[in-house]
């Protein structure tokens, strides 16, 4: 018969209590050096205006070119409400149509950031680089459409100081959107629709210490389908998220958004797939 292992229970309890006391003493020392606020701090909301174009250009039976350009303005002390130019986006990707209800995209982003602060920085314009991939699911339900979008971005950002280094972060984005026709039972020309959406953007990386929630965006958009290939829309978005340098600080913003969707298709009719839900 084998022997039972012998455990010195008092010794193990003493060791555990000693390690626990050491941990909490270290945590207390860190807390003394870096006192934390007792509650979250919300900054005053900023106002922004975004002008966005979205192009889905069919290349072949299964492939399309996702071409997006965004012009984003943000208020400053000298220019309230609309403000001055803050970012210019060039986001492009090649997409693959798996079915009418699912497509994927892979591409890159060049975002040009403009300094909107009142500080005297070394530079007023810096580039930001990203690689992004996206997975979109479309779900028809009665007369409306439901979209689930997962977008993952790998981004390299840089400050406005002359010698600032690039910071690498990952962004994990999930968006839920609905499109509800108001004057029609289907999405056809001359159809007015409303589109509520919610998107959660999380981030990770060495620079992300206590600020994993970068942004929560709540948007309502009113759109109008001009032709099968052209749609216009406008909406209002409220957003909030943690400051990268201090997770106890929350940024807020109200944004007016104006969109133009276009989807040219130069293929021959016999090569076309049935219409796919790509415009969002």
Structure description:
The chain is mainly beta. The chain has a single domain, classed as Lipocalin. 9% of the residues lie in helices and 58% in strands. It is built from one helix and twelve strands, in the order αββββββββββββ. Residues 1-7 and 23-33 have low confidence and may be disordered.
Would you kindly provide a brief summary of this structure?
With 280 residues, the chain is mainly β. A hairpin with a 2-residue loop joins β6 (125-141) and β7 (144-157).
Helix-strand layout with pairing:
Elements: H1 9-33, E1 41-42, E2 46-58, E3 63-74, E4 84-99, E5 102-114, E6 125-141, E7 144-157, E8 167-181, E9 191-204, E10 213-227, E11 230-243, E12 246-262
Parallel strand pairs: 1-12, 2-12
Antiparallel strand pairs: 2-3, 3-4, 4-5, 5-6, 6-7, 7-8, 8-9, 9-10, 10-11, 11-12
How many strand units? 12
Major beta sheet, strand line-up? 2-3-4-5-6-7-8-9-10-11-12
Helical percent range? under 10%
Order of helices and strands: HEEEEEEEEEEEE
Output the keywords:
280 residues; mainly beta; Lipocalin; 11-stranded mixed beta barrel; 12 strands; 9% helix; globular
């Amino acid at each position: 018969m084998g022997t039972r292992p012998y455990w010195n229970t008092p010794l193990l309890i003493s060791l555990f209590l000693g390690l626990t006391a050491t941990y909490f003493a270290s945590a207390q020392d860190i807390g003394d050096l870096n006192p934390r606020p007792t509650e979250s701090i919300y900054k005053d909301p900023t106002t922004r205006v975004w002008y966005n174009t979205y192009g889905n250009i069919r290349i072949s039976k299964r492939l399309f070119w996702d071409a997006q350009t965004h012009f984003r303005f943000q208020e400053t002390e000298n220019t309230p409400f609309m403000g001055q130019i803050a970012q210019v986006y060039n986001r492009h990707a090649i997409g693959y149509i798996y079915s009418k209800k699912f497509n994927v995209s892979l591409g890159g982003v060049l975002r040009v950031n403009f300094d909107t602060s009142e500080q005297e920085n070394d530079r007023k314009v810096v580039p930001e680089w990203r690689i992004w991939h996206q997975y979109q699911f479309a779900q028809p339900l009665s007369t409306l459409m439901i979209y689930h979008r997962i977008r993952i971005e790998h981004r390299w950002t840089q400050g406005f100081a002359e010698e600032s280094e690039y910071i690498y972060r990952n962004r994990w984005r999930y968006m839920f959107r609905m499109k509800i026709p108001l004057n029609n039972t289907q999405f056809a020309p001359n159809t007015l629709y409303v589109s509520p959406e919610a998107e959660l953007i999380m981030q990770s990386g060495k620079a992300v210490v206590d600020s994993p929630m970068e942004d929560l965006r709540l948007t309502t958009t009113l759109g109008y389908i001009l032709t099968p290939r052209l749609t216009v829309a406008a909406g209002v978005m409220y957003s909030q998220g943690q400051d990268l340098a201090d997770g106890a600080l929350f940024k807020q913003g109200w944004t007016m958004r104006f969109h133009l969707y276009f989807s040219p298709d130069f293929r021959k009719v016999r090569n076309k797939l049935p219409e796919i839900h790509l415009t969002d």
